[in-house]
Amino acid sequence: MPRREVRTIGAPEVCKNRNLADDPGKSRGVPVVMYHGIGPDRPGWIWNYLLTPVDVFEGQMKALMDNGWTTISLTQLQAHLSSGEPLPEKPVVLTFDDGYLDNYVLAWPILKKYGHRAVIWMTADFIDPSSEPRPTLDSAAEGGAWKSGMPVSGFLSMAEMRLMEASGHIEIQSHAKTHTWYPTGPEIVDFHRPIGVDGYTPPPWLAWNRFPESKYEYMSRSREDEIPYGTPVYRHSKALEAPRYYPDPALSERLTAHVKENGGDNFFAREGWRGELEGITAQNPPSVDSVETHDEYLERVLFELTESKRLLSEGLGHGIDFLCWPGGGRNPEVLELAKKAGYLATTTHYQVMDKRNAFGQDPSEIGRIGSGSPWVWKGKLFRRTDPGFFISILENFAGGQNTVWTMRFYKRKYILRGYRTGTR
């Protein structure tokens, strides 16, 4: 597929770069920031902790502009890593995982407002089939998109991705095809049942794997209630990091039939329900289960990586050169498969300070950091953080001096505020 012309949004005409190829010992790192979604919590969504409040995100984008940071493309970053191509004085790459609708509705208008660009890592299976782009914050009534009834839950359509790319503020790259979890062995770790029974939250991938055609709408139509109660939840792993196990369907049929014959939902209200299901499991060892051979596993991974590339390339009309591993699930063998599939670089590190995306490091590896919203301390989640905290995170990763003390100041502030007011 043809390559798109790289447009550097907001970059100065003459880029005086401290990341010079002839001085690698003093080269600054290039922060690559990881976001997921922007906006208010989604009702019942198990991953609300990934969201950054809109006002916090806008404050961060304004701080980038005010502090002289220039958002660059992955192509520019890769050229710098591989051959020392010069970059602006303070380069940064902004990235959004998964391809949520709010990236288009909320984040894109804010990026345009401050002259920034960003990368969206899109998972092919979750592309919304809608043909007409939905409204954005630009067209919302004063007070915010979610207050005006504008949808923010869901995933991007191809039409919306094309519209954002045409603006020059967004580039779409691959987040593989499935972004799911698969069983990896015969051990049963749980049984599917009504939400809340013994603290149960259904793993979304149960429905994704059973109804892959509707993955894009799972945030509004989960379909978890269409999975028979009693269905076993096997030991599992991220789809790309381990061979897939195929359970014996007869065991699942026996378990779900037992639940149905003994009250359905009400079966889980009686004591000993788990023991009953475990007893059936023990009496019915699998006879026709199987696990992928090593070659089958590698073939499946390669297909997923190349198919995601193909689907996005055909839909967007340009090459797809970069890959973000879903959930970070990878191993040395699949890293090599990504190269075989034609990816120039993949996301291989998170919060690793000696992998700062500086000239001289492996150009096929992209190290990323968090945005500071959310920020986690001892299991407590903080999302209402300051623009200054965000900038100190970038400076620290890039190699700035004395930034650790600034970061500690903000962290102490948030911890004390959390204890005093509960605000996080």
Structure, explained:
This protein folds into two domains: 24-178 and 298-419, Alpha-Beta Barrel (TIM Barrel); 181-238 and 248-288, no CATH class. The protein is built from eleven helices and 16 strands. It has helices at 54-66, 74-83, 101-113, 158-166, 204-210, 249-261, 273-283, 294-316, 332-340, 387-398, 403-421, and strands spanning 32-35, 37-38, 51-52, 70-71, 91-98, 118-122, 170-174, 181-191, 232-238, 245-246, 290-291, 322-323, 345-350, 365-370, 375-377, 380-382. The strands form five sheets. Strands 1, 4, 5, 6, 7, 12, 13 and 14 form an eight-stranded parallel β-sheet that branches.
What topology emerges from the helices and strands here?
Blueprint: E1 32-35, E2 37-38, E3 51-52, H1 54-66, E4 70-71, H2 74-83, E5 91-98, H3 101-113, E6 118-122, H4 158-166, E7 170-174, E8 181-191, H5 204-210, E9 232-238, E10 245-246, H6 249-261, H7 273-283, E11 290-291, H8 294-316, E12 322-323, H9 332-340, E13 345-350, E14 365-370, E15 375-377, E16 380-382, H10 387-398, H11 403-421
Parallel strand pairs: 1-5, 1-14, 2-3, 4-5, 5-6, 6-7, 12-13, 13-14
Antiparallel strand pairs: 8-9, 10-11, 15-16
Helix pairs in contact: 1-3, 1-10, 8-9, 10-11
